[in-house]
Amino acid sequence: MLTLKVISPEKIIFTGEVESVTVPGTLGEFEVLDGHAPLISSLEKGTVVYKPVQGERAQLAIRGGFVEVQKNQISLCVEL
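RE: above sequence
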């Protein structure tokens, strides 16, 4: 199971368990699933899409930021 935390300089936007996360990486959009290799990447303007374990698919428009994936924990620091 993946744990996602999305923060901006102003507030915590989302924290919880998700099935998948798609982010607008600097070199192109990519999806993070359970068991993904560790990585750190910058993000460009675009849409973050995530599917909570319990709930509907959600979208978040961002202007940029960073993502870190480590041991099924995804941290997004974004600018809205």
